[in-house]
Write a structure and sequence with these properties.
CATH superfamily: Metal-dependent hydrolases
Helix content: 25-40%
Shape: globular
Order of helices and strands: EHEHEHEHEHEHEHEHEHHH
Radius of gyration: 18 Å
Distance between the termini: 39 Å
Largest sheet: 6 strands, parallel
CATH architecture: Alpha-Beta Barrel
């Protein structure tokens, strides 16, 4: 009997969703994807995004299904479909109402960042000069997110805020899309202190394939990426790493302006990369989209990972994290 195919899970994407991409997910053997449904959207706007996904689930029911639990992901795998897991890259959807945390969880939200680059009502983003840490409301939000099973994501948050979130949370948190700062000094990449604390607490890191987070950007090699993964596994434990590609496939460059500017500024905030350009950088040749996700496995093998660890990184670690994280607190 042939060995069971790899379980492939991507910890973060914000693609321009279409039948084409859903079919590419299936061609790449991708079992589950955490998709961003909100950046700066408030509660009502987030409901509109969820309604859009409901229509996609109906139109492409042979390709995608809602993913609200680890059981949903396993079922999707057996059925040859891709489970779509909702996440927010900011706390904008809860506005200033802590009761909306449970409401959004009931509607399928499973990840929420406490901040996106800027200071929020909950925590500090990585682009702020000062980082006073988790706010009063942030402490209450963490407690409530722990209670209902909404995962705390600190991918775009600053150092002190991230370390405090790890310490305050009674359940493991996630950094769904980032790399080690020691490997590539992007503002969004994470310090060894953060990664060590994340691993010790049972949290998860999704290694990013977004060029601004890669050493040498678009020219980063698969070998360099996988060797970085090996060093990260030594630092925080192989059980705490997976893939969080941050893939924005088929999105127009104008979407970057929405990510950076939102509704909080009239000026252009270019973020990382060129001071004059806010477009998407080209992906590395070895990772153009969902069809290439499964091919990462051979790169991990070549970097010295054994087969059991390759399977963990490609998807089993995320599935275990979903199992522990998506339901109410025990």
């Amino acid at each position: 009997m042939s060995e069971r195919p790899l379980l492939v899970i991507d910890g973060l994407q914000y693609a321009k969703w279409s039948e084409k991409i859903f079919r590419e997910m299936r061609e790449g053997g991708v079992t589950a994807v955490h998709v961003t449904i909100s950046y700066w959207e408030d509660y009502d706007e987030t409901l509109a995004r969820i309604a859009e996904w409901d229509r996609r689930f109906e139109s492409f029911s042979d390709l995608i299904v809602p993913g609200r639990s680890a059981a949903d992901v396993r079922r999707a795998r057996e059925q040859g479909r891709t489970a779509i897991i909702f996440g927010a890259q900011n706390c904008s959807p809860i506005e200033d109402d802590i009761g909306l945390i449970e409401v959004l969880h009931d509607l399928g939200l499973r990840f929420m960042q406490l901040s996106y680059n800027n200071q929020s009502l909950l925590a500090t983003g990585c682009y702020e000069r000062e980082d006073p840490g988790i706010t009063r409301m942030g402490r209450e939000a963490i407690r409530e997110m722990n209670r209902v099973g909404l995962v705390i994501d600190m991918s775009h948050s600053a150092e002190r805020s991230t370390l405090e979130a790890i310490e305050l949370s009674q359940r493991p948190i996630a950094i769904t899309h980032a790399n080690p700062h020691a490997w590539h000094a992007a503002r969004r990449n994470k310090s060894d202190d953060v990664l060590r604390a994340l691993g010790e607490s049972g949290g998860m890191l999704g290694l990013s394939l977004y060029p601004h987070h890669l050493k040498d950007g678009t020219d980063c090699t698969l070998r360099a990426f996988c060797e970085m993964a090996a060093r990260t596994a030594e630092l925080m434990g192989v059980e705490s790493i997976g893939i969080g590609s941050d893939l924005c496939q088929d999105q127009p460059d104008s979407v970057v302006e929405w990510m950076r500017n939102g509704t909080w500024t009239k000026a252009r905030d270019y973020g990382e990369g060129s001071a004059k350009q806010a477009g998407f950088p080209p992906q590395p040749a070895w990772f153009q989209g969902n069809r290439d996700l499964g091919a990462l496995a051979q790169g991990f093998r070549d970097a010295g990972f054994g087969e059991a660890d390759v399977r963990k990184i490609m998807g089993e670690n995320w599935l275990d994290f979903f199992e522990r994280s998506f339901g109410p607190a025990p």
